[in-house]
Amino acid sequence: MLAAQLNVQPRIHTGHERASACGVSGGEMKALVKVGDTLSVQHVPMPTATGNDVVVRIVAAALNPTDLARMGLHGEVQGKTAAADGKGIKGGFFGAKGQQGAFGGEGAGVVVEVGPEADKTLLGKRVAAWSLMTQGSYAEYYKVPGDWTVELPPNVSFQQAAGPMINPITALAMVDIAKAGGHQCMVHTAAASQLGQMLVRLCKNAKLELINVVRKPEQVNILMEQGAQNVLNINDVSFRKDFAKLTQATQATIAFDAVGGDSTTALMLGMPVGARVLVYGSLAGGAGGEVKVPKAGQLLGMIPGTSVEGWNYGAWMIASGPAKRYSTQQRAASMLGDVLATKFGRTCSLEELVKPDTLEYYSKLSTNSKVAVMISAE
Hints:
It is a single chain. The protein is about 25% helix and about 25% strand. By secondary structure, the protein is an alpha/beta fold. The strands form 3 sheets. Strands 3, 7, 8, 9, 10, 17 and 18 form a 7-stranded mixed β-sheet that branches. The longest helix has 15 residues, at about 165-180. The two termini are about 30 Å apart.
């Protein structure tokens, strides 16, 4: 039964509550849910830890493009199909046909309940939590498999760890793939994003050369100020010539494209023989969010041997196996305070997620405008 049908008051957290292995479930919690075509904060039953699961009291959770896509609010085009009144967001691109239920795929908080098969030592720990199987971090409590959590370093705050895994693991995966393939240089588009800024620092540490492709002059400046050496604006008239010259000089034979469409085409036309282009996003996909990838045979002037394929971190993690996934989680958590740090442009409460000004802010997907949703006290 969804919270709209429950006349209950929200729990008040002191930030000091403790829980036992027998659990905290049985009550209600606040959560962002979708019923029909309306997103709103409602009271819903609290999750129960079963099997290997744990329940995490969420303190902070990042608002990611993947989460916005699930809501039908990915970018200004989709955002304009929705209307927020402070109580809820009605519409969105998918309307009533979109994903129903809970939202949010990662966050940080404290483990308050462990399932009978979960590691009991997790109880009371400050953790980063995420899952490819379950949603629900935009809520006071989030149920995830115990091995999809990792303890946070003492020097990393909950807000710093609000986006603990999706971007950091994606960055680590990209570098691992490039290094394993023997590539000397990697290309990344939408490079002024938080993920792109992580890659600037990570590639420097890994001694992997990086070509950053952006769309605005101010984004060039942002990356140059962070020490990036190769930054090109795809909208410059000389981009195609400059890009081809740079990729040949650096032997950039792998690219990760967050945009799709014309961006993918530009990469395929300018990279060396045998280059590999992996499309992992749909920023140019239009209202529906579909990834528009050109067919290799249709590109006149394409360098022979260039390949294009879809890629996402989730499939990579599953294919890597549990041991690799857990070690990657630990690597990511260890760098959340520096190399894989996220810069948040704004914080908001759970209730503020459905306010008009917040919707307008986050649906633009502007540079350095990532939102941390602060849900409960530390």
